[in-house]
Amino acid sequence: MAVYTDVDNDALAAFLAEYNIGEVLSFKGIAEGVENSNFLLETTRGRFILTLFEKRVAEADLPFFIGLMDHLALGGLSCPTPIHARDGKALRRLAGRPAVIVSFLTGVSPRKPNVAQCASVGAALAGLHAAGAGFGIRRDNALSLAGWRRLVNDCAADADKVRPGLAETIAGELAYLEARWPRDLPRGVIHADLFTDNVFFVGDDVSGLIDFYFACNDFYAYDLAICLNAWCFEPDGAFNATKAMALSRGYTGKRPLSRAEAAAMPLFCRGSALRFLLTRLYDWLNQVPGALVRPKDPVEYLNKLRFHTGAQGPETYGITID
Amino acid sequence: MAVYTDVDNDALAAFLAEYNIGEVLSFKGIAEGVENSNFLLETTRGRFILTLFEKRVAEADLPFFIGLMDHLALGGLSCPTPIHARDGKALRRLAGRPAVIVSFLTGVSPRKPNVAQCASVGAALAGLHAAGAGFGIRRDNALSLAGWRRLVNDCAADADKVRPGLAETIAGELAYLEARWPRDLPRGVIHADLFTDNVFFVGDDVSGLIDFYFACNDFYAYDLAICLNAWCFEPDGAFNATKAMALSRGYTGKRPLSRAEAAAMPLFCRGSALRFLLTRLYDWLNQVPGALVRPKDPVEYLNKLRFHTGAQGPETYGITID
């Protein structure tokens, strides 16, 4: 959470002159988003978020991300709506970086979501999957099996510095998943990073989903597994089965899972736990001196992975197979 | 610029229940202020800034800072106004830290101030000095001569790692200033840190002054010297005499300097350059691994100090002695 790039006022004024959104009243860097610089922009016409894309986001992916937000907003999802400039373009440049202005969303992210909020986010995830249908651009998930294999190789030499035996654990887990990963379950656009800080609530109701910069095409049920990992473990590491049941039922109430999807949930929970374990491990082992973001603890996801390894079946996650 | 402390939603709701400011609609950490955590808080009643005081601010000083903002706002200065809770207190606790809610100010901070903005900030500084009169609490400037002596001692062993000869330069400069520092010029409440990021503008007019957490009692003209250092050097290190004249005349148009104050300006510019050189040098030499704030370059203020050492007199700063 940081602002990486300073924006000069003259440059901002020149940039905004391309839009029909009025004059600047206030402009503040905000601590939201790990990969980009975000600013809260208030103009005489309303409030907006200005995002500058820093180098971790591939420019070639930006038309997918921005087109997706356009598509989802048109489909009725409450998400940031890209603001198009006078020439029709939403993706522009500012301070030497790709830049986009999107609509401001009201709401707050829960640090400790309650059961009702877990139910709401499950339903919102199903709404996102429905709204993504028909989107014309495709983006493969770079952080699925092939990406994990690369991360496992990159981390192999140093993983045991974090926890003795970790290299062997992740190599074994990846081999297990590679042998069993499904090929033909329902798929489409997924968020792929729907952590609590990417969901806004007013009370217990979801008021908006943000940060689509990991969105991609993959299995819908895998996205649900990411949410179970992100929303249903307590700070002490305990898995809260009540929250899991609420989240799963919130989802399946709007988009029922097929038998095959339900059966795959334990595997998807293991896979998504490995995915975040690996990216956190990589960031932990490759810390940049002077970086503005503290790396997250990979061991949190090692513990989640261990929980899923022992799960009995989809019932563990509040999912029943009829 | 960072957010050091996470605020849980339940804790925030309980905290706000002590106030008459409505329900939360939005809550975002903002990249403003180096010493504290700041959040933009939108409620059903309006917009506010919530500040959590981190450990670098001494709790004993908080009644001065908060009382001062109350006093200045009552005196007509556009500055954050502390919001008092139902029990009348403005200083409370949240997330284990002292906390205050203040009013939100519109406006943007210039990265590259223009001449008209320099004139405006000079006038605003004089307005601050006038509005501070009669404030009943006193806070000595911990970063005047005695504080510099301490910093010079702390940095002496390692200063030459930053620039060969730096230890000797700062020791000599401090001795020069100690021998000549005035004792009886007009004094009162000064801001002591009025850098560009602490001033908001709408166009070229000052819309508000913020961040009073270095405010203290000291010479008024010394505060003007801090501004000359902060506002009148270009990014390439050149001193912009046009901006200095505009800033000084903006100030003296509202609060004329005495002959003795005018004569002391070159000394005050040297002193304030040394002050920021020393604190930046200290932070540079004492970097905390994993810190969220990048230390600022001390050499910028070494170069400013060198400029002032060669100044001919107050005329260098656009100040004439009648």
Tell me what you see in this structure.
The structure is a homodimer of 322-residue chains. Chain A is α+β, with helices and mostly antiparallel strands and 322 residues long. Chain A folds into two domains: 9-103, 2-Layer Sandwich (Phosphorylase Kinase, domain 1); 115-317, Aminoglycoside 3'-phosphotransferase, Chain: A, domain 2 (Alpha-Beta Complex). Helix content of chain A is 41%, strand content 15%. The first copy, chain A, is built from ten helices and nine strands. The first copy, chain A, has helices at residues 9-16, 62-74, 115-131, 145-155, 159-162, 166-180, 220-231, 241-254, 259-285, 299-309; strands at residues 24-30, 37-43, 46-52, 92-94, 97-103, 187-190, 199-202, 205-209, 216-219. The first copy, chain A, has a five-stranded antiparallel beta sheet with strand order 1-2-3-5-4, covered by helices on one side. The N and C termini of chain A lie far apart (43 Å). Chains A, B: It holds the Pfam family APH. Chains A, B: Keywords: Amino-acid biosynthesis, ATP-binding, Kinase, Nucleotide-binding, Threonine biosynthesis, Transferase. Chains A, B: InterPro entries: Aminoglycoside_PTrfase, Homoserine_kinase_II, Kinase-like_dom_sf, Pseudomonas-type_ThrB.
